[in-house]
Design goal:
The chain has 290 residues and is of the alpha+beta class. 50% of the residues lie in helices and 19% in strands. It has 11 helices and 9 strands. It has a 6-stranded antiparallel β-sheet with strand order 1-2-8-3-6-9, with helices on one face.
């Protein structure tokens, strides 16, 4: 944080849908963030630098650089112990339905923010750039600035919803649902047999189409891609710790033929199964000589 005096810019009453838009640099810890609410309005905060400890309801959150924090209308929130830590941040208090009405938009933004699963999630530099543009436009306030600010604001809200979506997917991949974990365990236990997606969807107690969608979201791979990767990893282990033939390993790992196994294995490792086995044994021998 640059060592300069605390700075703050707050722009109010420029347009009906924005209650306040602000930017600030706080270099010293201060007790000025007591519990409060914003009737009928969302608050979106973006940490440009530093970190803060905030709460909403009965939950507390540590926010770091480029993190986003959203409170919904009438939610009670503030700083932990009423404290604002040193940071640089942007905050925006607005009525999203009113913005949609002003621009004759569908209620997609309102619905997106009403359905947010997380209030605290990672943002990015693109969001920081849009906020800087909005700040400069507020300072300028020339002809058409209000229209420009509304355009930047819609862009900002879309970026925030996309950031939330990315964070949501990332969280799901770190902790897949019980149904998907059950399906993965079944696939791994039966990987040496032919597997059909209809059976795995049944294990997860889902329709095939919904299972495919959830599996892709929660693992980042399709069921077929996940199974192929798992089979290759099992084959790599067998090539290292057994003297079984490559054909036997191919079938034991669930591949339909040794030729197909060799093609897939090389795609994943850059080597044929035979090359992989020889290289590993050669490396192990050299390691023993050192």
């Amino acid at each position: 944080m640059d060592r300069i005096l605390n700075k703050r810019e707050v722009f109010k009453h420029i347009m009906d849908e924005i209650d306040a838009f602000g930017w600030g640099i706080f270099n010293d810890t201060s007790s000025n963030l007591l519990g409060h609410t914003h009737p009928n309005s969302y608050e979106i905060c973006f940490i440009a630098k530093g970190s803060v400890d905030w709460w909403a309801g009965e939950e507390s959150y540590r926010l770091n650089r480029h993190d986003i924090y959203v409170t919904k209308p009438d939610e009670f929130h503030g700083g932990v112990n009423g404290v604002m830590q040193p940071c640089e941040l942007y905050w925006l208090i607005l009525q999203i339905p009113l913005l949609e009405a002003k621009l004759s938009l569908s209620p997609a933004l309102s619905q997106g923010f009403a359905q947010l699963q997380y209030r605290h999630f990672a943002g990015n530099g693109e969001i920081a750039g849009v906020l800087r543009q909005m700040r400069e436009e507020h300072r300028l306030m020339s002809e058409n600035s209000v229209l420009a600010i509304r355009a930047w604001l819609v862009n900002l809200l879309i970026l925030v919803l996309r950031a939330h979506h990315d964070y949501q997917i990332s969280a799901q991949r770190r902790n897949p649902s019980v149904a998907i974990r059950k399906a993965v365990a079944w696939m791994e236990s039966n990987s040496h047999h032919p597997i059909h997606i209809e059976k795995v969807a049944q294990v997860a107690n889902m329709s095939v189409s919904y299972f495919y969608k959830r599996f892709l979201i929660e693992t980042g791979l399709s069921p077929a891609q996940y199974l192929t990767r798992y089979r290759v990893e099992q084959a790599k282990r067998s090539l290292i710790i057994t003297h079984a033939s490559i054909t036997d390993i191919a079938y034991q790992s669930g591949f339909s033929s040794s030729q197909y196994f060799a093609t897939v294995f090389k795609k994943f490792t850059g080597k044929t199964p035979h090359q992989y086995r020889i290289n590993y044994r050669l490396k192990t021998s050299l390691d023993h000589l050192v």
